[in-house]
Amino acid sequence: MEEKRADLEKTSQPDEGDLELAIAEDSVFGVITEDGPNYRSLGWIGTSIIMMKIQIGLGVLSIPAAFHTLGMVPGVISLLCIAFATTWSSYIVGVFKLNHCEVYGIDDATSLMLGPIGREVLGAGFMLYLVFAAASGMLSISIGLNSVSTHSICTASFVAIGAGCILCLASIRTLDRISILAWIGIVTLLVAVFIVTIAVGIQDRPSDAPAGPWVSDYKIINYPSFTDGIAAVSQFVFAYAGAPFFFPVISEMRKPQDYPKALALCQSVVTVTYVIVGIVVYYFCGSYVASPALGSAGKLIKQISYGIALPGILVASTISTHLAGKYVFVRILRGSDHLVSNSTVHWMTWLGCVVTLVIIEYCIASGIPIFGSLVSLIGALLATLQCFQPMGGMWLYDNWRNRERDVKWVVMVFWSSFMIVGGTFLMIGGTYGAIVGIIDSFNSGGQSGVWSCADNSNSV
């Protein structure tokens, strides 16, 4: 373990005078030269911004509606519990990466623990998670464009426009350049969200409230059904489910040892944002809160907030598509000189991965056009599997044979086991709840149809 950690430190601390040539060899990318892309050039501030953008994306837009399902107090408590659990999971990702520097993705980590079968199962789950997350972003882009333009063209065309923009941006090869987009994305999305948060406090009623005197009907405690309640918790999981993405992000850091402070900054900003937005928007909107939340404050504010938020939503889907494409790309070319060169094979493989993924994401966004239910499904079926069980297994894998079995060791064994069991419960129950929600939404007739031209900005 110490040899691997020392090896990683050796390749992670470039000389100040020659950054591009300092990292000569990497355990994941192989020999890196100035003739190809430098995949080890990401600083810790850029890392934290990318992590924030991964987290503060579509998830924050569903939090006020989840508070309505659970009630204010249970909602906040559930959110903080998920925040604590996923922060621990994200921290373990950094520890495991330093202990096993050859790990690039969660599939590599699972391969160490469970062998080839486990690698393929978690690798497939990771890919599906990224693809579904990007697809939900495409759906949100179509909602935003419909809102801003007052449904000027067919919704299916808006989804296609989003897909084209994502294709262009996700084709950027390195995360240090993507981090520039992440800065733009995080600022625009936060500005849009806080515009809505302030607007609902200033206005006397949410946009969908009935005419006449109105007082917010928010609930301190609500009593949802099991399916509704666990679907709401799954939306919190989705909002915090960045842990599996952080493996490839760490792999492109100049100094992976700086990951913990990048994580601390990220999770602090994310949690404060989620709590403020969730409480304020739900308090003033009550049962008339919209999902996505940007539609809660009336038509004009809705158009303004979506106009500002569209770059942030676009960047969120861009990062998901980029990471998914990079995962496939590295698996195909790992160990080959083409991985870090500018050869024809390199470019054809990279662009082929991105194009294929964008097509799949477009089909999903058009096939499940229900934002809240899609987010719940992603959070339960895919995010939970990536953020809970594997990290419990990682701690056990690295520490089970520890000879010093003190109280701390016993507590961590129980906690890691709880993450595995609790994650499995959330995954099964949440998936059931999300599927029931999708079926009910289609049966009610209140949603736009599959590959529909209908306006989806007023039906979510």
UniProtKB/TrEMBL annotation:
One of its GO terms (molecular function) is L-amino acid transmembrane transporter activity. Belongs to the amino acid/polyamine transporter 2 family. InterPro entries: AA_transpt_TM (IPR013057). Keywords: Membrane, Transmembrane, Transmembrane helix. It comes from Penicillium olsonii. This is Amino acid transporter transmembrane domain-containing protein. It is found in: Membrane. Residues 42-435 form the Amino acid transporter transmembrane domain. The keyword Membrane applies. The keyword Transmembrane applies. Its main location: membrane. It is a multi-pass membrane protein. GO terms for cellular component: membrane. The chain crosses the membrane at residues 50-70, 76-96, 121-143, 149-169, 181-202, 229-250, 262-284, 304-324, 345-368, 374-397, 409-439.
